[in-house]
Amino acid sequence: MTAALQTSDDDPHRHGPQLAFEDLEVGQQAEIRQLVSEDTVRNFAALTGDTNPVHLSEAYAANTRFGGRIAHGLFTASLISAVFGTKLPGPGAIYLSQTLKFRAPVFIGDEVVAQVEITALDPARQRATFFCTCTVGEKTVLDGEAQIMVPTRDEIEAELA
C-alpha cells in the first residue's frame, strides 16, 4: 500500500498528517524531491562547517574522480530525515538509527528523490523499519535502513489535550 502523502509541487516539504503507529502498514511509502542548487551546497557547508573543496571549489573538484563539484553526502541523507519528519510517519517521529551506503555522487543541478518504505513493524516497541533510497533519475545514489519510533494514537491525543 502506498500512503497518500504526496506534496504539492510548490511546497515539497509540506507536512502530511500525523500518523500514529496504528496507522502504519508494511509497504507504505512516501517521498520528497529536492533540486540541489549552488545555494543548497553552500548553505549546507556553512551550516555544518564541512568546507571540503570537492563541494565548494570548481577548480579543485575538476581534478577529482568526479570531474566537478558534488553535493555533501549527508545533505542527500538528510532528505530521508525530511521524509520521516514531514510525511511518513510525520510529526512526532523519532529517528533511532540509520545505515547508509553512498552509491554515486550527486551534482549541483541534480534532482534527488528521497523515498522511504516500511518493511517491518514492531508493535511492542512502537518501532517501524524502513528501506530508504535516494535516486537521481534512474540511478540510486544512496540507500540504507532506518529505525523510527512512532507515537501511538493515545500518545498523540495526550499531547493534543
TrEMBL record:
<protein>
    <submittedName>
        <fullName>(R)-hydratase</fullName>
    </submittedName>
</protein>
<dbReference type="GO" id="GO:0006633">
    <property type="term" value="P:fatty acid biosynthetic process"/>
</dbReference>
<dbReference type="GO" id="GO:0005835">
    <property type="term" value="C:fatty acid synthase complex"/>
</dbReference>
<dbReference type="InterPro" id="IPR029069">
    <property type="entry name" value="HotDog_dom_sf"/>
</dbReference>
<dbReference type="InterPro" id="IPR050965">
    <property type="entry name" value="UPF0336/Enoyl-CoA_hydratase"/>
</dbReference>
<keyword id="KW-0456">Lyase</keyword>
<dbReference type="Pfam" id="PF01575">
    <property type="entry name" value="MaoC_dehydratas"/>
</dbReference>
<dbReference type="InterPro" id="IPR002539">
    <property type="entry name" value="MaoC-like_dom"/>
</dbReference>
<feature type="domain" description="MaoC-like">
    <location>
        <begin position="30"/>
        <end position="126"/>
    </location>
</feature>
<dbReference type="InterPro" id="IPR003965">
    <property type="entry name" value="Fatty_acid_synthase"/>
</dbReference>
<dbReference type="GO" id="GO:0004312">
    <property type="term" value="F:fatty acid synthase activity"/>
</dbReference>
<dbReference type="GO" id="GO:0019171">
    <property type="term" value="F:(3R)-hydroxyacyl-[acyl-carrier-protein] dehydratase activity"/>
</dbReference>
